[in-house]
Amino acid sequence: MALRIAPALTLVLSLVPAVCAAPAATPKPLVPRDGMTITKSVTLQPGTYVLPKGLVILADNITLDGNGATLTGKGAGQAVLLAKRKGVTITNLKISTYKWGIVANDCENLTIEKCRVRDTHEVDPDNVWLNIRQPADDPYGAAVLFRNVKDSRIAESDVQHQQNGISLYDCSKITVEKNNASFQSGWGIHLNNTSDSVIQDNLADWCDRIHKRGERAYYPGADAAGLLMVINSSRNKILRNMLRGGGDGVFIAGYMENRKTPCNDNLFEDNDCSYSPNNAFESTFCQGNIFRNNRANNSNYGFWLGYSWENVIENNEVCGNRIAGYATEHGYKNVVRGNRFSQNLRGIALWSRSESDFRAEFPGTRATARNRIERNSFVGNGVGLLIKRDGSVVERSPYEERIENNDFTGNGVGAILMNARDCVVQGNRFQGNEVAGLRVEGSTGTVATRNAFVGQAVPAWTDQPVKWAHGALKEDGTFGEEVRGNYWIGKPSGPSAGVDPNPLETDPTTASTRVWTILDLWKWTPG
């Protein structure tokens, strides 16, 4: 029997494909209301909305797409608040005139991207010295404020022109990248007890403020910085950022209010922190930080690492600083390697102060000691390297510093050792320094060997006996076999000039048996 289908059923079946193929309706853009709660993914209707109470996100794994909309406040509160949320994305949102732009507390897996936040709250610009210890329960205004957030990302956002750009308290594993946090009166990016994070490819130029002192006296800085790191912010990677013209470019503090707050084992690589009125990089009371391939030019100090130890400063460009390229008081066991120091008042300054005493908290800092200055070039500085003790307390004398395989060319004085003891000056080239290549004053136990003194009026001057012909120190601190001494063009001259009992006949840096470079002189053995 043939199967017959009723005409009405045939009509219904013919419509099924059309029904299935119909596109889903596009959600209508949302017009936000003051204090609105967001519980699902939404796209805002473009426009400007005055919302003093802002928006509150109350769901996980959703997206708030601002779609270019602007939320405007009245100088208090925040535009967007999240608490105990996961997997939220906020994008394409503009914010203005709140105390904070976006606030996230106790969250994870957040993404803030392509937002613009301006004109959050600022303290008095002239009369307030910033508090770098400002607590998490009373933070300064900021474009983005994270507290106890982890595994999150802030990217490609414009957070210029306020006091602070991005503030991270008690956070971990945060990526902050490709943001513009310039022109702040406080901090472009601020880490407080925030570790294991990546800060990369950001722009935070001209984060500075003026502190008024009297009717006509003003001090630039007031602890403003392109990047501030305090209170146990460790193991972070700071890569390829522009942090120029800040009160400091980078400001790291590892000791505050008589307590240790170390910011250790961070990597700073390929950043430009030039043009600071204070320090391009400041890192005090910290251990194990690495500063590599950065630019630290045209500031008061390129690097200031007071009371810090076991740090590495290598392959940086340090030029035109008004006081010193690299400076540390009471720092020890730091390695300064392969840097280019030029046109600074002092290329490197290491010193101890008789009246300073942090021995109870930091026993190793009784004096500047056991630093390694190696394979650097010092060109056109007032003084290439200065190591000295200030004051009369002998136990504070710098000791066991090693100056090896450096090039000192065209400085006023190549290197000065003043009131130091048991230092080694080995394998360096001193050429064309205007006053002297090496000056040793009030120092004892100095060893100078395998150096080349070329083309300066006073190759070396000393008021103390110098061991001119010993071998290098061995690992146990004793001297190895005696080798031939230094190479001189002209005899040492000047008052009580050093006399090398066994000078080299051939300049080790131009020996015909090999082509010498400053990076491989340490491999050369006199024959």
What does this entry show, briefly?
The protein is mainly β.
What does this molecule look like?
It is a single chain. With 527 residues, this protein is mainly beta. It is elongated. The chain has one helix and 48 strands. The N and C termini lie far apart (113 Å). β19 and β20 form a beta hairpin. The protein has a domain of 228 residues. The longest helix is centred in the first third of the chain and has 15 residues. The strands form six sheets. It has a 17-stranded parallel sheet, with no helix packed on it.
Write the layout of secondary structure elements.
Layout: H1 7-21, E1 37-38, E2 42-43, E3 48-50, E4 55-57, E5 63-65, E6 70-72, E7 78-83, E8 89-91, E9 94-96, E10 100-105, E11 111-113, E12 116-118, E13 142-147, E14 150-155, E15 164-169, E16 172-177, E17 187-192, E18 198-200, E19 210-213, E20 217-220, E21 225-230, E22 237-239, E23 248-253, E24 255-256, E25 259-260, E26 267-269, E27 279-284, E28 290-292, E29 301-304, E30 312-314, E31 317-319, E32 324-329, E33 335-337, E34 340-342, E35 346-353, E36 372-374, E37 377-379, E38 383-390, E39 402-404, E40 407-409, E41 413-418, E42 424-426, E43 429-431, E44 436-441, E45 447-449, E46 452-454, E47 460-462, E48 487-488
Parallel strand pairs: 1-4, 2-5, 3-6, 4-7, 5-8, 6-9, 7-10, 8-11, 9-12, 10-13, 11-14, 13-15, 14-16, 15-17, 16-18, 17-21, 18-22, 21-23, 22-26, 23-27, 26-28, 27-29, 28-30, 29-32, 30-33, 31-34, 32-35, 33-36, 34-37, 35-38, 36-39, 37-40, 38-41, 39-42, 40-43, 41-44, 42-45, 43-46, 44-47, 46-48
Antiparallel strand pairs: 19-20, 24-25
